[in-house]
């Protein structure tokens, strides 16, 4: 009986060696669900899959249903995002994005905003210098954490609901934040809460990145130390709510202009 096949558009999140010649690829499908499939022969230098199933690429795939894992029958490259593989810093930025998507996406769980966000982020990142690529990585992680259900509350106290946007506008202010409770804690509520103190301008940038489009973010100029503080904020947020330690982000901290 002929194998049942299906077509999807998908982003390559991870590649794992299966044996001498084959790979298992993890994809984020356009609907936001995760798909794993075998790419037979993809490790051979002569394979047409080798150049089409690079990390960060978007492909139109023809997949065949398998008993355990589906297999890739055909792959047509839609967007390769080659600049993301040229510099170490760009690769670390894009790797942080796909590592997060690999960890939060699930088989059969639809979340189409995640795919659209990744595609748009990689389009902008491909045309960016290192500084902007790091800024975009922070924006991606903040937005993706929100789509994954753990949006940080920055404009309201998580205990009493007080409007804290006034705090964000004070460049000299330090603010209390609770990672466990999910956001900012106002001055009246922080006693007894498990909070850390962070500078208001960092949270103000987080608020701006969360609410801006990527086109608007292209025009933002975030200081490098603030971008790195935002990435560390996202790292702790992901660890607290998903038990994820983003290794690519740790690598970015060691290799990029800090
Ligand atoms: Zn409060």
Question: Can you give a write-up of this model?
Answer:
The radius of gyration is 20 Å and the shape is elongated. The protein has a five-stranded mixed beta barrel. It has nine helices and eight strands. The N and C termini lie far apart (58 Å). The protein has helices at 49-52, 88-104, 112-126, 130-147, 165-168, 200-211, 214-218, 224-242, 247-255; strands at 5-17, 23-29, 34-39, 58-64, 70-79, 174-178, 183-185, 196-199. It has 258 residues and is α+β, with helices and mostly antiparallel strands. The protein folds into two domains: 5-79, Nucleic acid-binding proteins (OB fold (Dihydrolipoamide Acetyltransferase, E2P), Beta Barrel), CATH 2.40.50.140; 83-152 and 193-255, de novo design (two linked rop proteins) (Up-down Bundle). Helix 2 packs parallel to helix 4 and helix 2 (88-104) runs antiparallel to helix 9. The model has no long low-confidence stretch (mean pLDDT 94). The chain binds zinc ion (ZN). Zinc ion binds at residues 157, 159-160, 162, 186, 188-189. Residues 157, 159-160, 162, 186, 188-189 line the site of zinc ion.
